[in-house]
Structures are given as structure tokens and as C-alpha cells.
Amino acid sequence: MLTIHHLRIGRSIFTVWLLEELELEYTVKEYFRNPDTNRAPPELRDIHPLGKSPVIDDDGLILTESGAIVSYLLKKHDPEHRFSPAPHDLAAWGTYNQWLHYPEGSVFLALLIQLLLLRSGVPAPVFEGYSQAEVKLHLDHISSQLGENDYILGNQFSAADFGVCYMMSMAESLGLLSGHKSLSDYVERNKNRPAFKRAVDRAVE
């Protein structure tokens, strides 16, 4: 049986969304953050030493890292390549993999710094200057890639949209999407997908 260890509130809702898009049977093991530290509870370390989420347990196989989980589940459950290009189309497959790993590989640090600065309330000009410039760079880059398309790789939804939507949702919650209507519309479009709504019903409400 497939189990997802889901930390509220955080990125693992986007892995639940993946499970819903794939129409898999799974169970949700829910964890809540420490209200004083906003950190995951120590029970998550019983599942994986890092104590992070998402984590999946697929009949004893423990996997972490969002991109790795996506790749594993698509390899196992998406032989028709509904959510990713077939590997024989090397150019399309390479572009897809770039965008699959881009959000947490390049974008996340800049947004994390913004989040920590907002929580601390302490001025830190060096970090603020770096993060603001990086955020602008990435938002412009994603806007350019998106263009007038519905999704990040064109007008067809792909697994690359899970991570990109997560990052843009995070940016939106930090008030960083002002002036980027196409990105706000992109987040709304993804969150209006039936599978995303089912994920929210299953793992949030």
C-alpha cells in the first residue's frame, strides 16, 4: 500500500495532488508543525532521518525529495506518458526534466530567504538585496517560459507543473506576484484542476 507522510502546511500537498492526478489508491499519514518553531514534529524522523516531508512509503520503499518522488511514481504508474514526454524524444524529455527540477534547484532559496526575512522582521540588507534580485530574475524567467500558454511546457499539463506551481503559490503567499498576472492566473488555473481540489479535500480540510 502506498502511504504519503504529509506535513501541514507545506509542499507535500503538491505530492498528494500528484497522487490524485494519477488516480492512485493511497493513505495519508498527517503531521502538524510545532506551533512555537514551525518545524516538523520529531515523529517524522521515525520515517526518515531528515524528518522532512513529503515522504512516501511504497510497500516498504521509502522515498523523499519531491522530484525523485515524481519520477518514481510516473515510471511506475504512467506508462502512457500522460504527464511527461517519452524518453525517446530526448529534447522534450530533457526540457521536461529541467523544469521538473528547476523549482527546488534554483528558485526555492530566493523564496526561502524572503520567507525568513518576513518572519524575522529584522532588516538584513545583504540578504534582502540578493533575494529580491533573484526573485525578479526567476519570476521574469518563468513568465517568459509560460508566455500565453496554460502550463509551463505548453498548453498540456505535465508533472513539471507540480513544482513550478508550488513555487509560484509560495511567491503569491509572500506577496511577490504583483505585476505578474500571468503567474497568478497560472496558480489559479492549476488549483482549479479537479485533482488539486481532491488533494485539498483529502489532506487539508
From TrEMBL:
Return the InterPro entries for the record: Glutathione-S-Trfase_C_sf, Glutathione_S-Trfase, Glutathione_S-Trfase_N, GST_C, Thioredoxin-like_sf
Keywords (alphabetical) are: Transferase
Which Pfam families does the UniProt record give? Answer: GST_C_3, GST_N
Q: Where is the GST N-terminal domain?
A: 1-81
Q: Name one GO molecular function term.
A: transferase activity
What is the name of this protein?
A: Glutathione S-transferase
